[in-house]
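I am still getting used to backbone structure tokens and would like to learn alongside you. Label the sequence line and the structure token line clearly, so we can match residues to local backbone shapes. Would you write everything just below, so we can both look at the same thing?
***
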Amino acid sequence: MYWSGHKGLKNLIYLVLIVVPLFSFGLTNHGLWSADEPRVAEIGREMALTGNWAVPMLNQRPFLEEPPLYYATLALTFKALGVSDRVARIPSAIFAFATVLVLFFTVNFLFGPQIALFSGIILATTGEYFRVAHTVIVDSALTFFIACAMSLFIVGYLSDSNRKKLLCYILLYISCTFAFYTKGFIGIVIPGLGILSFLVADKNIKEIIKMRLWLGILIFLVLTLPWFITLWQQGGKEHLDVFLLHNHLQRFLPGKFSGTISGEASGHHHPFYYYLIEFPVGFLPWSLLLVPVFIHAFSRSDKSETPPEKGRLLAKCWFFAGIVFLSAASTKRTLYLMPIFAPMALLTSLYVESMLYRLADKIEKTFLWAFTAIFAVIGISAVPVYSSIQGIYPWIRGTNLFPSTVLLSLLIVPSSVLAMWFLWSKNFGKYWVTTIIPIVVGMVFTAVAVAPVVDIHKSFVPFCHELMAIVPSSEPLYAYSADETLRGAVPFYTGRYLTEICGPGNLEKTIETKGQVFIITRDKKRKAETELLSTGKLSIIFQQKMGGERTLTLLGKNSHTVQSDIHLAKDN
């Protein structure tokens, strides 16, 4: 319930000055990377090209893993700025930044501008959150709408005005519906479980009556029925089955059952304890403080009726309800944790703020010293690590990575040492400020200096340029055992769709009935390549190694072998 006028505005400006550059650097200096970006970007391109805003299409085939909201946002971006991998990440960056702002205003409402500033910075500098802000992926939008829903709930819940309460709950239902339009029912389940567990913990389950759930159902139906009807019109029962059964129920069921609905597994199956490891990884570097953060969060009573205590309780319920639900699902990725980073950022900021007004105990000091020392170690070891890597990969010497690495060390080491000094002298205010410096510097270094170097081995651009130069525009492009990444990358960069070949029988038929044939594979351990060469009628035209295991290969019939081997020579 605070704004504090001048201080609130000042802290908002500080947050914007930190986060906008942080999310802007590195958006345009590399191509689309697998596995998600080529697929998502191509769906946006096809939506902009066809004007079919209801059914996402990948390589001219319906792609119904998610509803169309994020793809429509991407399509509008392409229409406004042109189709390019240079602009494809703009929607994700905007959604990520908007979520930081939502968290700031929500925490400012509950706790005041100082904790709001801490929360925004912590969320923006969380490793996985930073990565997604620089990735063409729908989860940035999902996180934004879920954050809006939770914010609207707590504002409405704490309001004494029935009119304001009703307005907040109506907007909450609209936000949940938009979250559904982004990634399906998970956009309703996560905020729903978080709110329900909060009401149970707060012993106020009667608030459900005031929330008028019937109104939420009505809003959802009014906003989504037109889309479901359009799905039915364009694909009948098959479209609805793919979206509702395969991409929702099947993905939630345990692995042994998940392949029985549609006949194919949905992938990313992991045991229930998967997130016990992956959450700390995704929440780095702040996960190094999770133990004192949890101790601080649960050492405080939530029985107070004040807004700060309600906010703390909501953050805990939001986080734990979310991680339990995500752990129960069959398919798991670190990426899926995005919607619960915000409440953990708030709990972390509450711990950070508490350190400004009290002395740390021995356990806390151990974690704080380790937290700071790690950055110093990274800064000191950066140049030696670079020297070791360039010994293994000599091609790195031709990049600008060495000067950037030296600059990284010169910035991180002094700031880390200074932070240690402030920790030793118990000046926790200056300690936290100087601790932020190596985190931000490290992220900017990764986005600006490391990404272009990694792009040498992850970009589809060289392969697609070579492809367009060799294969006449009049000849069809075939793909053998194509995955979603290949279906996205080649059409996005060439503007040419792939004719997919599935299975040896179709392969033999295509080779026998066509004169000149060009077939592309994106192969792991070159299994598909071996299968194609075993026909004795195809030869490799050129290849490009993609990372450690995968290879992009163009094969042709009745053609001379060119064997360009893009990047393979550099790897050796």
Summary: The radius of gyration is 26 Å. The mean pLDDT is 90. Residues 362-456 form one domain.
